[in-house]
Amino acid sequence: MTYAEFKSRITSRLLWGNCLGMAVVALLCGIGSFVFLHIYTHHGENISVPDLHGLTLSSADAKLRSIGLRIEVSDSGYVRTLPPDVVLGQQTAPGSEVKVGRVIRVTVNSDHSPTITLPDLADNCSLHEARARLTAVGFKLAAVEYTTGEHDWVYALKVRGRTVTAGQRIPVDAPVTIVVGDGNVYDEFNGDDVMEDYVFGYSQTDSLYDSY
């Protein structure tokens, strides 16, 4: 290729036209991307999250939608003095600045008390262990009830005056009564007891007096 041919191609309108076209396309793509991201992220458009505590779920939903936010129930709790579906809490604190379309997750009040499965404790552990296991899973405890039996040995569990058994689901707000032995253990009379005493050379009466 001669110098004249090279110079002719470098100064060609077609070459410079193509370069100019590519530059314009690149510029338009850059501007388009910037505008798209600006619109998509709502740059500079922040919304203050309102306080939803105490509102019903429907009222909280309407309030958030009116300002461009959405609501989602993520958990439930139970407060006896409040009606069902009342907002108990929200993950995004009131006053926080968020983007349009943000989902605000809330905790609402359940229409019934949650239940917990009763562990196997009756005739299976001591009072100390029963208390520890019941409170560990969330049960409330009522005053201990005593019955004739081994000291502090758990003989039964009661809820609202009725005996309950392992595996039953008990409302978490229902206090559990632990029935334990009072330490007064009485052996049942066996007709062979007296005979056995004489076989071994003493009677219950002899042993009673001998102990003084």
Give descriptors for this structure.
Trypsin Inhibitor V, Chain A, 11 strands, elongated, single chain, 212 residues
Strand count, sense and closure of the main sheet?
4 strands, mixed
Strand neighbour order, sheet with most strands: 7-11-8-9
**Helical segment count:** 6
Radius of gyration: 40 Å
How many strands in all? 11
Describe this structure in words.
The chain is elongated and about 125 Å long. The protein is built from six helices and eleven strands. Helices cover 33% and strands 23% of the residues. It folds into three domains: 3-40; 46-109, 2-Layer Sandwich (Trypsin Inhibitor V, Chain A), CATH 3.30.10; 113-212, Trypsin Inhibitor V, Chain A. The termini are far apart. It has 212 residues and is α+β, with helices and mostly antiparallel strands. The protein has a four-stranded mixed sheet with strand order 7-11-8-9, with helices on one face. A three-stranded mixed sheet has the order 2-5-3, covered by helices on one side.
Brief digest:
This protein is α+β, with helices and mostly antiparallel strands and about 210 residues long. The protein folds into three domains: about 5-40; about 45-110, Trypsin Inhibitor V, Chain A, CATH 3.30.10.20; about 115-210, Trypsin Inhibitor V, Chain A, CATH 3.30.10. The chain contains six helices and eleven strands.
